[in-house]
Structure formats: C-alpha cells, structure tokens
Amino acid sequence: MTGFRRTTRVLMATLAAAALAVVAPVASSADAAGLRNCTELTGHDVDQVGCYELVWVDGVEVRMTFANVQFRGNVPSDKLGVFYVIGPQDDTPQSEEATFVHDHTVGGTPRQNHGTYSVVLRTFFVLCSAEGIASGACVPTFSPLPTGVIPLATTVNGQPLTSVEVIEAAAGAGLVTLLDTGQPIVGTVSGR
After folding, report:
1. Distance in angstroms (rounded) separating the CA atoms of residues 114 and 92
2. Are strands 120-128 and 176-191 parallel, antiparallel or unpaired?
3. Which residues contact 176 (CB under 8 A, 6 or more apart)?
4. Pairwise CA distance, residues 33 & 19, whole Å
5. pLDDT tens digit string along 49-69?
C-alpha cells in the first residue's frame, strides 16, 4: 500500500504532462483532409489542427471534438465540466494509438442537462485506489507511461465506468482516486 501511494505521488506531476499528450491538443482550424482522430496527430499537426476522440456519456459512446487544450481563460471551477481518463471499457480502446491505452468519460450533453453543460473541461485520471485494488472492487488496467505504470480504473464493483455518476460514486467510496491534471481543455460532444 505504501509503495502504491509513493508511486501515485511520484506520477502526479508526470500525469499532468501526460494529459496533454492524451488529449492531443488542437487549435481552431480543421485539416483539409477532414477532422482526424486526435491519436493520429503527430509532429506539427499537434496544436495546429482540430481533432476528435470517442468518449462515454451515460453509457453511450459519442464523438467529442476538441478545440484547444491550452485553454487560458478564467472559468470558475464550479462551472467546469469533467473529462475522466479511464481504463478501456471494451476490446477497442478509444485511444489505442496514444501514449497509453485508455478511454474517456464526460458528463451529460446540452440537451440532457438543461443548460449546465460546459465546453471547458477539467481533466482527471481515474486510478484504482490502494483500497480498491486490495478489496478487489476496482479492476485496473496497468498503463505504461515513460515514468512508470499507472493503475487506470476499468471497472468498480463490476460496473463499467461509462458514466460520471458511477465514477464519482466510486471516488466517494474511496475505491478510485481522481487525479486532477490541472490542465483545462476545450471540447464539445459532436454526435452520437
């Protein structure tokens, strides 16, 4: 347990930097060939062209378009949406080409949450806690990063992590740890 906590603390700074690679930052213009998956962007295209990734919203996989991961505006923290990075939820990870294999979960879309939707999102890694792993309640996907391996949460008590409510209930129970990357991003759900 002590080793897990130490590893988690050591990785916190690295995870914040890795979040930038996870989301593959973008600017406002789309590539002439069409909007590409963020995991396919390399070199000069990163930070220069629009992109999309698949995300989970209330158990349904949808497409999210990203505008700019380098958000520098001021949005009160209670107005930020959430963007959770989780372990893969099925045999085809949403970001299998990225730095490490993972999926994403975000909150409700505008029609579903009656106007409280925000395109400015706060990114969190959802990690199995030491308690979650020890009890067997949290099943991790051990994902390699350049600085070590992190235990991305895949399921909790047998439930997939495809909704914000399930993730936040698991965090409230101490079965997962939400690691804030400190980097807001801009993205909007663009289709089901």
Report:
1. 32
2. antiparallel
3. 126, 127, 128, 129, 132, 138, 153, 156, 167, 170
4. 26
5. 678 889 999 999 998 887 655
